Amino acid sequence: MGKLGKKARKFAKKNLPSVLRDRRKKKALFKKRYSSKNKQSNVEDQTKLVHHSNERNTEVEAFEDLPLDTPFMENDSDDIAYSSDSDGYLSEDISYDTETDSEPGKLLEGDKCTSELVTQNIKIQEDLAVQKRKLEMLKRKDPSFSKFLERHKKDIEAMQNGEVFSDEDEMSNRGRDSVSEDNQGKNKGRVLTASAVSSWCRLIKEEHKKEEFVCVLNAYRAACHYGAESTGLRFQNADTFCSLVVSVLSEADNILRGLLGLSSSSYKKEAILELKATPQWVNVKPLIKSYLRSTLSLLDQVTDSEILAFALTRFRASLPFFAAFPYLLQRLIKTTIHLWATGGGMLSSASFSIVRDVASLFTTDCFDNCLAKAFVAYLAQSKATEIVNNNHLQFLRNSLVDLCSLDVQKSLSKATLSVRQLAKILQWGLSTKKKEALQRICSWEYANCINLWVGFIAANIRDYDLQPFFFTMVQLINGVVGLFPGPRYFPLRLNCIQWLNDLSNSTGVFIPIASYVLDVLEYKIVRGGGKPGPALSFQSVLKLPKNCLKSQTLQDECFTSAIEQLSSHFLQWSYHISFPELATVPLIRLKKFYELKTMESLRRAVKHLIEQVEKNADSVQKKRDEVAFSPNDHQSVEAFLQFEKSSLSSPFIQYYRSVLEKAALRGSRKNEKISFPRRDKSKRKREQPLKNVADGSLINGSGHKDLDTVNGTKKRVKRRGLKA
Length: 724
Known about the structure:
Blueprint: H1 6-65, H2 70-73, H3 111-141, H4 143-151, H5 153-160, H6 166-187, E1 190-192, H7 194-206, H8 210-224, E2 233-235, H9 238-260, H10 269-275, H11 279-301, H12 305-315, H13 326-342, H14 346-361, H15 364-382, H16 390-404, H17 408-432, H18 435-441, H19 444-460, H20 467-483, H21 490-507, H22 514-522, H23 552-572, H24 579-582, H25 584-596, H26 600-626, H27 634-638, H28 642-647, H29 651-670, E3 707-710, E4 713-716
Parallel strand pairs: 1-2
Antiparallel strand pairs: 3-4
Organism: Anisodus acutangulus
InterPro entries: Noc2 (IPR005343)
Protein name: Nucleolar complex protein 2 homolog
């Protein structure tokens, strides 16, 4: 660029400063304008980003904190209706004040009444919310009205706290407590002897005398509340206490039915409701209420399982009496559900018998309450990293399936909501692959929820239309299998395979699971022979620790479990007309697996399975070549080899029985000792394995002797975990 001329330099010197000055002004002005706009836009963008991130975080937190029992929580109400304080000791002069024994529970006598009250409460709350908004708007518009409210705020709070009605409440409470205080004062300091109890029991058994029965019920109440409150009545010894409780539990129901004129075989609540209008009921009602309340207190206080099982067995006959006391029925449901979930053996069985009778005997709302509480208790028992008592959990699952089968349509609606919730959590895990999502899915709470609904489908799909629910469950289980491909999750995958097998067996619908089983079978966990490890049980754990992955025990457990599941799958379709085609691809993969393996025990088991499958496929092929119908004749296809299937004498069935026997033997051996080694943070020197002691056994763990090898000598160390 050349130099400017004289005229150009003169023009620039004259005009350029003003141009630059104007440009600087305009630039500053535009900068101010744009900076304010940019700040506003940046603030808006940041708020949008924060809003979206908060939405994502709340969505993630909602999935993390979403309990699986949410569909049942609306029916799981722990609030027990108020019962009057006059349900204490009975007056032994048989002069009952029936007016003071008023029941607030009468509001709950009809389920229609409760539903109407709930709808009325909802409408009242909505109206109150509208009125509150109008009041807030009026306070903002009219400051004088707001000042008026502040001046009268103290008077409003006094009325809300009920200070005006305090005197009336005190008088009513005194009237309620008068009968129980008088009777408790009479019993204060009395010692109940064995002779008195035996005479009372003899009189009520033989003559059904009401006066003696009142005395027995008062003593029974003192026994049931023994230790929980100061009853004033003492027992001579433990035998007196036990004989009283056993006598009342054995004879009370018969005596009460005799006083009401009911037969011992009458087990309908309608009979009790019909008697409520008679004067005979007015005299016997305090006795029934005292017996029911005292027994419920006994169930809450006693910890011995045998006593509880006996009390529940005898108490079961008195269930129709609860139709007149709805608030006591809620206590009964809560107590028996707790004993069913936390007990074991006879106690759980006796508790569930009462829960099932209550659900079938009373109204639909009572069934909903029983189902909700039972499901919540079942999931509460499933919140564990390792299942200790798998048999008890299986009993809870079967019991809950039996309870759901009482009303399949209502249970199906709840099950659909539950499975929909499981599917949302699975979708969250598939889309994010976060650690929290995987931990939520690979948990016993999630797995036992799936196991419950699989059992529900298997028990009811023959009699009800559960096909949509069945296909939803299959998709859910397939999603769980695809989410966890690694060897640490083999227990979860094998559980999913077993669920699919159960669904296929109960519905008669083919579910392709052979590829899932063969993936487990062909996975190379260790190269060559691994180290021997501790005993494993895939029924008590879903995720394996890392220090078990290279053990030979894990390889053997995966192999035997896969053979069992594959044999069960082949057995189900062993008589189907398409079995040769079904077994083609699995046979190819099994033969390839047989060629690659070098361990003789694995090769022998796989070879036996291949031979049995090929033999069964050849026999089905020969029978199929002899038929004359086409594949489109579905009726003939379904009837193919049904006679041979009912005989249960085919070679493949005999083979499957041998597989089950070996599995049962292996399970009994594993139950002797199952533990996982703990990984130590500090590296230690490899210790020499312990040799068998003189008696041929070496058992480590709580409640047994531990041996330690130090410098080649065996020393006995202290016992651990022994309980007196």
